[in-house]
């Protein structure tokens, strides 16, 4: 449910150095992990790692947007959250198509690479999730950041489990199943963000018509 009177709407919260510092750290972590995972995913032939890398890339852009709108009015922050939600959902759709393509052209990924990189990504995302936990009940923009970090941690656990499945079964299906799960999480999270952002945009009071404002000034 959208919160239209949260503490995050207050100027002191929006300009809180702790919030901005957490975003900068999250941006740096996600940017670095994107590079690591996209290289490892392509090298190891893992669709799950590639999907997670795209998620890291999306989160890096999301944190950058959040930093840009942190001090703006709630309407602008809600618009930014709407953009982030749509991006997250689109990434989920892309991953679904990639998993389907992988199912038709099955090739067993390298379980060792999946496991090592998946554990590293899990540690990185847990650090970010713990940092952002206190901001999870804020406006749509803050909530979107928390949802992204939460989904990432869940996805990383699934990647590590998939690595074990690939190793034990010598099959690509655990990797493809996790890629599909991450896609569903991305689409679901994107829809949640867009719903709250839409509610906050609707709750924003409309400016008074120009003629009404002029009549007020004229009566003074």
UniProtKB/TrEMBL annotation:
Entry keywords, A to Z: Ion transport, Membrane, Transmembrane, Transmembrane helix, Transport, Zinc, Zinc transport
Keyword tRNA processing: no
Keyword Membrane tagged: yes
Entry's localization field: Membrane
Bias type Polar residues, positions: 211-220
InterPro entries documented for this protein: Cation_efflux_TM, Cation_efflux_TMD_sf, CDF/SLC30A
Region (Disordered): 198-220
Lipid bilayer topology: Multi-pass membrane protein
Cellular component terms per the entry's GO annotation: plasma membrane
Domain of life: Bacteria
Spans through the membrane: 22-40, 60-78, 85-104, 110-133, 153-170, 176-194
Cited Pfam families: Cation_efflux
GO molecular function ontology, one term from the record: zinc ion transmembrane transporter activity
Residues in Cation efflux protein transmembrane domain copies: 23-197
Name of this protein: Co/Zn/Cd efflux system component
UniProt organism field: Sphingomonas aurantiaca
């Amino acid at each position: 449910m959208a919160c239209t009177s949260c503490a995050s709407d207050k100027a002191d919260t929006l300009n809180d150095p702790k919030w901005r510092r957490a975003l900068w750290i999250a941006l740096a972590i996600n940017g670095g992990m994107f590079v690591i995972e996209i290289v490892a995913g392509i090298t190891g032939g893992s669709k799950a790692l590639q999907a997670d890398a795209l998620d890291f890339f999306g989160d890096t852009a999301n944190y950058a947007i959040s930093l840009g709108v942190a001090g703006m009015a709630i309407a602008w922050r809600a618009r930014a959250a709407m953009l982030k939600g749509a991006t997250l959902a689109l990434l989920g759709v892309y991953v679904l198509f990639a998993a389907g393509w992988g199912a038709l052209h099955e090739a067993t990924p390298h379980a060792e690479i999946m496991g090592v990189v998946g554990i590293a990504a899990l540690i990185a995302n847990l650090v970010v999730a713990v940092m952002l936990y206190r901001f999870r009940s804020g406006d749509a923009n803050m909530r979107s950041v928390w949802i992204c970090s939460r989904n990432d941690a869940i996805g990383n656990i699934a990647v590590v489990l998939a690595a074990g499945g690939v190793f034990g079964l010598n099959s690509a299906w655990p990797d493809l199943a996790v890629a599909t799960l991450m896609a569903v999480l991305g689409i679901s999270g994107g829809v949640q963000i867009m719903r709250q952002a839409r509610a906050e945009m609707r709750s924003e009071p409309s400016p008074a018509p120009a003629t009404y404002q002029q009549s007020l000034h004229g009566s003074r």
